Amino acid sequence: MPCLLFLLAPPPRPCLADSSKWLVAGCFAFAAIWKRDAEIMWVLLGAVGNSLLSLVLKKMLNHERPAPALRSDPGMPSSHAQSIFYAATVLALSLYYWLGTNYLTMILGPATLSLAAYLSWLRVSRGLHTLNQVMVGAVVGSAVGALWFVLWHWLVQEAFASSVLVRVAVILGSSAFCVSFVVYMIRHWLKDE
């Protein structure tokens, strides 16, 4: 029993939970630089939309964080969990789409979602969110990620390939939206720290 107590104790400072927003942002930046195509622009646009949805839900639900939380803003849903699970869901679905179902994807897909669950659980262990807030963030982020992935492959990709107007709208709209959101978030994150 004493061996299991380390699982319940909050991790020591500094913690990966403190830098998870930078980790997710860095992964998206790396993916954008690496892929440099319309699909990654679509995924980035979805990430921005997912983040904005989290802000709207926080204001609508106005659910308090746990009592000892250091922050006073609403905690439902966890925007960290929502962003992390959006990214993990899109990545896992993309792996299955690109590589098919094989041993590699059967390991990497669940491993990606497990890492997302661990990073989200750190928010609970740090007392920044309740388990329900993280679970709602995970469900919403996963649902948005799956929907955004399906929209690309069933609707947008074909329209993008066949219409110059759709190409211009997706590329310029995604670029402008993403750059302005990145500037806003960096200013917001630096202000918080």
TrEMBL record:
<keyword id="KW-0472">Membrane</keyword>
<dbReference type="Pfam" id="PF01569">
    <property type="entry name" value="PAP2"/>
</dbReference>
<feature type="transmembrane region" description="Helical">
    <location>
        <begin position="134"/>
        <end position="152"/>
    </location>
</feature>
<feature type="signal peptide">
    <location>
        <begin position="1"/>
        <end position="17"/>
    </location>
</feature>
<keyword id="KW-0812">Transmembrane</keyword>
<dbReference type="InterPro" id="IPR000326">
    <property type="entry name" value="PAP2/HPO"/>
</dbReference>
<keyword id="KW-1133">Transmembrane helix</keyword>
<keyword id="KW-0378">Hydrolase</keyword>
<feature type="transmembrane region" description="Helical">
    <location>
        <begin position="164"/>
        <end position="186"/>
    </location>
</feature>
<feature type="domain" description="Phosphatidic acid phosphatase type 2/haloperoxidase">
    <location>
        <begin position="40"/>
        <end position="149"/>
    </location>
</feature>
<dbReference type="GO" id="GO:0016787">
    <property type="term" value="F:hydrolase activity"/>
</dbReference>
<feature type="transmembrane region" description="Helical">
    <location>
        <begin position="103"/>
        <end position="122"/>
    </location>
</feature>
<dbReference type="InterPro" id="IPR036938">
    <property type="entry name" value="PAP2/HPO_sf"/>
</dbReference>
<feature type="transmembrane region" description="Helical">
    <location>
        <begin position="41"/>
        <end position="57"/>
    </location>
</feature>
<keyword id="KW-0732">Signal</keyword>
<protein>
    <recommendedName>
        <fullName>Phosphatidic acid phosphatase type 2/haloperoxidase domain-containing protein</fullName>
    </recommendedName>
</protein>
